[in-house]
Amino acid sequence: DQQVKQNSPSLSVQEGRISILNCDYTNSMFDYFLWYKKYPAEGPTFLISISSIKDKNEDGRFTVFLNKSAKHLSLHIVPSQPGDSAVYFCAAIWQSGNTPLVFGKGTRLSVIA
Amino acid sequence: DAGVTQSPTHLIKTRGQQVTLRCSPKSGHDTVSWYQQALGQGPQFIFQYYEEEERQRGNFPDRFSGHQFPNYSSELNVNALLLGDSALYLCASSFTGLAGGNEQFFGPGTRLTVL
Questions:
Q1: Within an 8 Å CB–CB cutoff, is residue B41 touching chain A?
Q2: In chain B, which residues have pLDDT < 70?
Q3: Interchain CB distance below 8 Å, B102 and A42
Q4: Which end of chain B is more exposed for a tag (fewer CB within 10 A), N or C?
Q5: Is A76 in contact with A19 (CB distance < 8 Å)?
Q6: Are A20 and A109 in contact (CB under 8 A)?
């Protein structure tokens, strides 16, 4: 039973446009959410996170939105750049600190120049 | 400041063999978590070590075991290898401090192939 779902395996976006990556979760105990980016032959790199007490967190070109009632979060990248091409993983945890990350299967983003 | 390091980078084993993977956490981190990432999947939590003890464990059989050393480095051991154990094994480190250590830093992984 997948607790964190990324239903789009891949996404293709033109350079300069907005990329929107979606993530759904089923476990209402999750109260902290993270996005990781992964390039081939590298480990996942932390990108941005959001606590369940917020509905938006912004860091430069990256914004994460959280809709708790829908158990849905999304990552917006504006403007998209070719270097953003990677696999993006959504992850969730219980806010007790150092609990296991539960990952989705990832979405491969391709930004076309 | 070195990040999380893992060795070896790649490993090829045959069914039934045993393997040991190693991880050195980021400087200042005291907690190590291990994940298995199969092809096309997200990382799956194996276990976490803190203060040289297994603190949490995911849904993996006892063939998977680990260890944490006083310098916080860690090993993952897998016995009686199966073809299905072929995957990328990721180590992540964090700090169990006042902030809770939600952010985990990942190493580049060890690619294990079981033939």
A1: yes
A2: 1, 97-102
A3: no
A4: N
A5: yes
A6: no
